Amino acid sequence: MKRLLEINICLVFLFLYIPILVVVMFSFNSGDQIAVWEGFSLNWYAKLFKNPDVWRACKNSLIIAGVATFISTIIGTAAALAIEKYRFRIRTALTRVLYLPLIIPDIVLAIALLTFYVQVKFSRGLTSVILAHVVFNIAYVTIVVRARLEGYDDTIEEAALDLGANRWQTFWRITFPLIAPGIIGGALLAFTLSIDDFVITFFTAGVGSTTLSVYIYSSLKYGITPELNAISTMLLVNSIVFILLFLWFRGRNTQTS
Amino acid sequence: MRRNYRLLILLSLLSPVILWLVCFFFLPLISVLIYSFVERGTYGGVEWNFTLENYQRLFDGLYLGILWRSISTALVCTAICLLVGYPFAYYLACYKPKWRNVLLLLVVVPFWINFLIRTYAWILILRTEGLLNSFLALLIPGFQPLELLNTPFAVQIGLVYGYLPFMILPLYAALEQLDLSLIDAAKDLGASPRHAFWHITLPLSLPGILAGSMLVFIPTVGAFLTPDILGGGKVSFIGNVIERQFKTARDYPFGSALSFMLMAIVLAGTILYFRALQGSESAET
What is the pTM of this model? Predict the structure, then answer.
């Protein structure tokens, strides 16, 4: 029985990792076939760095993810503080509604935003995408910051207030440093999800606001070249760096609490 | 005075999130609702006349077929994830191998990688001249390459690949909390291992099974990218029909009605989940 379970574990990991390894391997292929091995080279990376479209898409992705993360981290943290530290009438309703954007299919959220932009005649570009990304990012930031605030000791704040600190000082000197790992963790999660998002961006972006994900999608649809393997590998490395950062902050989260 | 101060803080903390959700979540949903009840204009616009025609069209055989494909594929995907994920989570939780945390982390890592790339990887594997066919040709002499890409099979495998971690994690969380002494007690009282599994382990892990099933079913039934990329336009889901209404057919009203149907299915699934969860909890006590 134990043997069978161990075999299952191995098969699952093969299933999960073979596709990823294949992409990485073929990004170093010298030939122009996407999946026929012809020899090692860094050709496709060199081509990638010379491609202005890729650079522009990269820049757009970073701007969108950066601004959306900044806004959603502030709003999400404020929401988490309100939910965890106060009792108010619409609290339960709000916590449910807050997570709704994560439950409804992303294509529904995407076309809802699209029809809304069309109806109010809001022009589509970087701004429309950023506003859309903030909607789902708020939910993720709130989840992570709330987790940090659970089991948070209110007495430290009360002590600070008793010792004559005002609310503002108490927040910046006591509360903020204590929940900072949660805020950074939430921001990293939001940034990664923003960079990776395709569906919402695809529907809310206009001409000239192509992101890396949308660029990858169009090359998938209209002519796959091995350049795609190189882009994928670069994004993969980027994702791994962010997971490690996220885990590191989460590790500090559990250590200090 | 103190009460007002508290209210002021609460308002300043909550108003941004409420404002944002109203402007960029509820108003857009209302705009879809409005669009779903008006007529389609001649040049891709809309005519502001009330009609139920968009909803009537949903019952067209073509769309019912696509709806059925989305739901049945999502159900099969959930079942496969459960069959593969349960033994996986069971091993980690009950045998407690030394590398447990590392193994769990390795399950999550692919989830962090761009979904487009993870789906694209399967093109490299499933293509006619792809890796799977080359591998099979090495094993079997005289092997004729199979057409695997742009088939329901490709879409199914892509969906299982995309959502398997969502099944494993809640299952593990449920099984990990399981009190192993209950199983020992059952065995001491003469239950066979099989009997103990069916009557103790499985019912106690039901909340995990339900949570995992919901987390897999909901995104797969609304999937757009996987059927689009691995189905090559031949295996459409509701999501793909919606996309076509907005990107090519420019029939916003019908696309909006389709979106509302998809949302209704997902919300029905969520409500069923909470009902079932309550049922399993009351059965325990």
Answer: 0.88
* Same domain flag for A219 and A237: yes
Nearest chain A residue (CA) to B115: A196
- One domain for residues A85 and A113: yes
Weakest mean pLDDT among A26-40, A45-59, B173-187: A26-40
pLDDT 10s digits, A71-90: 999 999 999 999 988 888 88
- Is A132 found in the same domain as A19? no
Considering the domain boundaries, does residue A46 fall inside one?
Answer: no
Read off the pLDDT of residues A243-252 as tens digits, 9 standing for 90 and up. Answer: 788 778 777 6
- A198 and A241 in a single domain? The answer is yes
Q: What is chain B's mean pLDDT, rounded?
A: 88
A166-195 residues touching B, CB cutoff 8 A = 167, 192, 195
Structural fold of domain B57-284: MetI-like fold (1.10.3720)
Which residue bears the tokens 């600190």? A165
3-state DSSP: chain B helix, strand, coil percent, rounded to 5?
75, 5, 20
What 3-state DSSP class applies to B154? helix
| Dist. CA B119–CA B68, nearest whole Å | 23
Q: Is the ipTM of this complex over 0.85?
A: yes
Indicate yes or no: CB of B14 within 8 angstroms of CB of A78: yes
Closest residue in A to B83 (Cα–Cα): A8
Q: What is the number of domains present in chain A?
A: 2
- Contact of B7 with chain A, judged by CB distance below 8 Å, is answered with no
Owning domain of residue A187? 51-256
Provide the residue type at A48 as one letter. Answer: L
